[in-house]
Amino acid sequence: MKLEYYTENVNLLENFTLVREFLKELTSAKAYENWHWARWGWLMGHPNFHDDMLKMIGLWKEDNKIVGITTHDMRVGEAYLICKPDNYELLKEMVEFAEQNIASEGKLSIIVYCEDNIQKDLLKSLGYCKTDNQEVILEYDFMEEDFSYSLPDGFSLTSCKDEKDINKYVRVIWNGFENEGEPPIFDNDYDKPLRENWKEELSVFIKTPDGDYVAHCGMWYEEGEKTAYIEPVCAVPEYRNKGLAKVAVYESMKRCSKLGAKRAIVISNQEFYYKIGFKVSSTYFFWEKRL
């Protein structure tokens, strides 16, 4: 098994696809439920992701297939070690790679599934300490729950397939996550985000009587898969606590259900999701070390 930096392969699209297929193989493993293949697509398509971040990702390959990954998720100083149990002998090397390439300001956090005793024991032996910081995966079981909702009078549903207006799309996310100032303006009416398995019809918005988007749920799903991945969800501040984000999430999940999905997951521990029927699926803790 050979270690290489993500950028060593001049064909970055090939590496992207190899990683994505590797993560799809791990979909059913609780230990890596937090690294659903859609998270990889989200990371690589993030507008703030830059080339220097690619250099921090390590790949372990055998016969041109991925057997292990050490990566971050936009936050330098936080690392994820991803490999199949059959390849756990790589873990120490993966930790060393993370310490050399992902650590920040003399510190590194490694995020580990709460029941992965092998990783936890290794990190303890290397001087890492468990912290209270968590990454929680919540799930909505389509077989046990329903998608019933009602919209306030005058409000309506739409999607990126129905209305191709990139500036409305950007504005609801910009305001929904409370960014300061005005969002950037795009000259083109619409430009589909360059992200694998992002489907226009699953990106749902709630629209006011005046036509403004005020809540949004983004969804990643590939037909034939069991799990859909929610990212992002938001509502602009003045339209919160009206049930609008719930409607967006329910409608998007409903559409995934019709395509064959059995559940949806989201990386969050917000009370909002518990209130609308989500339950904890898996929990991961941050293990930290001063280098």
UniProtKB/TrEMBL annotation:
Residues 156-291 form the N-acetyltransferase domain. This is N-acetyltransferase domain-containing protein. Coiled coil: none annotated. InterPro entries: Acyl_CoA_acyltransferase, GNAT_dom. PROSITE patterns: GNAT (PS51186). Pfam families: Acetyltransf_1 (PF00583). GO terms for molecular function: acyltransferase activity, transferring groups other than amino-acyl groups. It comes from Anaerocolumna chitinilytica.
